[in-house]
Amino acid sequence: MINVIGIGPNRENITLSALEALKNADVVIGYKKYIESVEDLLEGKKIIKKGMGDEIARGELAISKSFEGKNVALISSGDPGVFGMANLMFQLIGKYDDIEINVYPGVSAVNYSASLLGAPLHDFCAISLSDILTPIGEIEKKIEYAAKANFIIVIYNPISKTRKEPFRKFKKILLEVKGSDTLIGIVDSSQKSVKTKIVTLDKLDEDEINMSTTLIVGNSLSYVENDYLITSRGYVVKSSIHPLANEFYNNYLNGETATGSNKDCEYYPCHNDLQCCDFCFCPFYPCGDSSTGGKWIKSKKVWSCEDCSWIHEKSTVKCIKNSLKDILKEVDDLKSNKKELLKLRRACILK
Amino acid sequence: MINVIGIGPNRENITLSALEALKNADVVIGYKKYIESVEDLLEGKKIIKKGMGDEIARGELAISKSFEGKNVALISSGDPGVFGMANLMFQLIGKYDDIEINVYPGVSAVNYSASLLGAPLHDFCAISLSDILTPIGEIEKKIEYAAKANFIIVIYNPISKTRKEPFRKFKKILLEVKGSDTLIGIVDSSQKSVKTKIVTLDKLDEDEINMSTTLIVGNSLSYVENDYLITSRGYVVKSSIHPLANEFYNNYLNGETATGSNKDCEYYPCHNDLQCCDFCFCPFYPCGDSSTGGKWIKSKKVWSCEDCSWIHEKSTVKCIKNSLKDILKEVDDLKSNKKELLKLRRACILK
Q: In this complex, which of A20, A111, A138 lies closest to B350 when CB atoms are compared?
């Protein structure tokens, strides 16, 4: 029997299942560095350490030990199903009859890295930049489509000493599709103490990336707060409707509010770069989403839009007006229809 | 302090870190079903079980208990970073000063489901079909782009009793972009014993899908063998060059082999639907990839191409001839340049 065992990113994050499977093994096979991280658990077992890049030899050895009747543990770091040993083993055993094989899942680099960076994930893609057996054109296409669809993008195997071209292409495509201010979380596990850093794409330096780095590229709703990389997923902030907002939306629904910039208003311009006053009060207030510049005034527990002028941009107003009439039929809908409002907001941000 | 703890897909797949964090907690908060799965570990702790969909209340409660000086464990199933409690918590604590928060990653549904199905993953996208706070247009675009870029697609939250439309759209888009023979792995965790099934897209039945189902959609290199869903990642099968292949490629490199269908050959047609004999012997032999129909003859340990006619299709020949001259300059390159050959093969399959 062959157990392909994911030991996770480090000793602390191994699962109980994986521990149990290691305990029951007769023979343990793996890349030297991974074996050493769990070696104290392997007393009395036959241990076979192999070099990096020797995956096929490791797999064939596991098969031959299994035919000797041994219970074999084949160790993979992270999750063996994610760019690990699982696919290779299933392809290799296709050659033989009657090999029992089990995969033990582990915490993969995407989950571990995300946990250290904060909460960067939402819908995401995981892409390996290794072009050893994958055409570079395929990798480029995946990066491009993932960026265009606004996925969070998680990069495995970003670079090696001899393989830098895919990383450069990755950076170039992101610059073209997403722009230089795209947020990138960097998690470097090459040293004993793992290092994290958050940069914008224009500051992403090839010399800081190595084989043990995982990158997490934010989407349009990602932001940084207290050194954490966070992607807004939207949630409904409890609130009441301010009397002035109530008055404004009564007038709005009667078609009695200004369009474009209202220079006659005594508060004009109440925002920097004010283009449109159509939504003098934001219909999504409070959105609780810092990605467009809003933030909590902590002392008062009040949501501040001072640094967000998104609702006053021409393109925003146009996008919202198209759909708002179906969602906001009376002022109370600002509260009762908040989920639909937040979806409309999201749709207009991503447009 | 608030610890957002991923307990994985089930009790056996919890990590040591998560266990330790649970042990150190004063108060444990979570959705009823998740708490119950680890309740025996929680003796002596204050346990607060909440209903489904009550995420904000759970998060606010964790914050208030933390302000009381408690060490709070907030439980998430799977990985809290993947459609779990992490994003929400980071958004919620933006309102307050000085809350210490840690995320404990877990084995997510993608890793667990993949391990039960075999080895279906390569570059993949994870998409939630919940349109409660995400516009359906955004979800549709992500499915479309993920399908067009040939990602493995992992679907979270595919359906609920009142939310079936996103699933129907998902199926429709896949049919249009990928075709009815696309392989889909289904992992249903709604019962105590988890059920898996592999179907083609045209057999994907809405009535077999529920809130606790994870779907894994294969790519162009996925295949089924012994009830496992496997995605070829390519590897180099050890082999020697057959004397007849040696002779053929000597002639090929001298421009002395046939193009198109060679009806004068005594073996014609040696394959069903034979269009082109340009590569009488496949330059990629043995590819070890069952996704185009090849397989091992187990008794002889020989790779059989009997059921693969891909190399004899017009479009294949055209794609390969474009690039082969740069990779195959002498017959020995069939062995020494095998990685580049397998990349060319992959590029032409995905074209």
A: A138
